[in-house]
Design a protein that fits this description.
This protein is of the alpha/beta class and 344 residues long. It has two domains: 210 residues, Spore Coat Polysaccharide Biosynthesis Protein SpsA, Chain A, CATH 3.90.550.10; 125 residues, no CATH class. Helices cover 47% and strands 18% of the residues. The protein has 14 helices and ten strands. Strands 1, 2, 3, 4, 5, 6, 7, 8, 9 and 10 form a ten-stranded mixed beta sheet that branches. Strand 6 and strand 7 form a beta hairpin. Helix 1 runs parallel beside helix 2, helix 9 runs antiparallel to helix 11 and helix 13 packs antiparallel against helix 14. It is globular, with a radius of gyration of 21 Å.
């Protein structure tokens, strides 16, 4: 059986569409665990109504802690041999759970990875990721993890959990949990899980539809302490992926660039009104975050974008005010492009 664990926080109408895409799955043995993470919009009542209407659905309520602790709570209640984590505003393709069960029954894999499509909020296609049919050995993958270290790579694993099926036994035997982060908790969980995975199966079927957030919603969702969260994710990387093979310089570079990108994004997001800082306070805060991150100790890699190279050269030279001006200019250009109807 598959335990489908869905964290719910202020999901409104999208929750019912998501759950409907699960409950209409045919030929599969599954349960649905809805974890209401302190919703304030009536989503908790929707969870209770869905549970009352179908014996396969259970509703659990907790105070707001974030999607990671919500998934951990669902994990503690799961009865299935495998566990699956969709987002509450996305959709599962017809027959997806049956295909997952067939794949792992045949291969014995303890991690299944499948294809997905990404749509904009208004349903326009943005990206489609199709994996090759492949079985990987966990030990060999950990020795050379570069091909798996990012979601968008051909064999990318690190990223979201919604295109993966996990073994409940591996999770429980090794006390694998989602870290209590408000962002990037998914990547942290997957890295911890991959420390113990024995067999990983990739299948080419596209079984999931993910709706991407707009830049405006992204600005509202990202917490003001995002820079600290980015550093916590880097600590997770140092405790997991970066311990697997110290000679794997390609993976080290990929993760350094990921960390640098996230740190720059944290500085960009600090231009949001949520931060409520004067120009002098903002400059001092940015200096503090860059110093705490340590990203200026990394090389400026050749495959960085022109924008990233400019920003990093300015930061390496201590020109923080000018670096912030470049970041602000980039954001203004993106806003102008969005107003002109271009997707950014």
């Amino acid at each position: 059986m598959i335990s489908v664990v869905v964290p719910v926080y202020n999901m409104g109408d999208s929750l019912e569409k998501c759950v409907a895409s699960i409950l209409t799955q045919e030929g599969a043995d599954f349960e649905v665990i809805l974890v209401n993470d302190g919703s304030t919009d009536g989503s908790g009542e929707v969870c209770d109504r869905l549970a009352a209407g179908d014996p396969r659905v259970r509703a659990i309520h907790q105070v707001n802690q974030g999607s990671g602790p919500a998934r951990n709570r669902g994990l503690a209640e799961a009865s299935g041999a495998y566990v699956y984590f969709p987002d509450a505003d996305d959709l599962l393709a017809p027959g997806a759970l049956k295909r997952m069960q067939e794949a792992v029954a045949e291969s014995g894999a303890d991690l299944l990875v499948f294809g997905y499509e990404v749509l904009s909020e208004d349903g326009k296609p943005l990206r489609r990721h199709v994996y090759p049919a492949l079985i990987g050995v966990g030990e060999a993958m950990r020795r050379d993890y570069g091909d798996y270290a990012a979601q968008k790579k051909k064999l990318g694993i690190q990223g979201a959990p919604w295109n993966k099926l996990f073994s409940t036994a591996v999770i429980r035997e090794n006390a694998v949990e989602y870290p209590p982060l408000r962002r990037h908790q998914d990547e942290g969980f997957i890295a911890r899980y991959m420390c113990h995975a024995v067999k990983v199966q990739f299948i080419p079927e596209v079984l999931y539809t993910h709706y991407a957030n707009s830049r405006a919603l992204e600005w509202r969702k990202f917490p003001v302490d995002y820079a600290a969260i980015v550093r916590q994710l880097w600590q997770n990387r140092q405790e997991t992926i970066l311990t697997w093979n110290p000679a794997d310089t390609r993976t080290q570079q990929i993760l350094r660039q990921e960390y640098t990108d996230n740190t720059i994004k944290a500085i960009e997001l600090s231009f949001s009104p949520k931060h409520d800082k004067t120009a002098a306070q903002h400059l001092a805060w940015a200096k503090e975050q860059i110093g705490a991150s340590g990203i200026c100790e990394f090389p400026i890699y050749d495959d960085y974008s022109r924008y990233k190279k400019i920003v990093l050269r300015l930061l390496h030279g201590g020109h923080y005010r000018l670096a912030l001006a470049v970041m602000r200019g980039k954001l203004l250009l993106e806003q102008l492009g969005a107003k002109g109807g271009k997707h950014k």
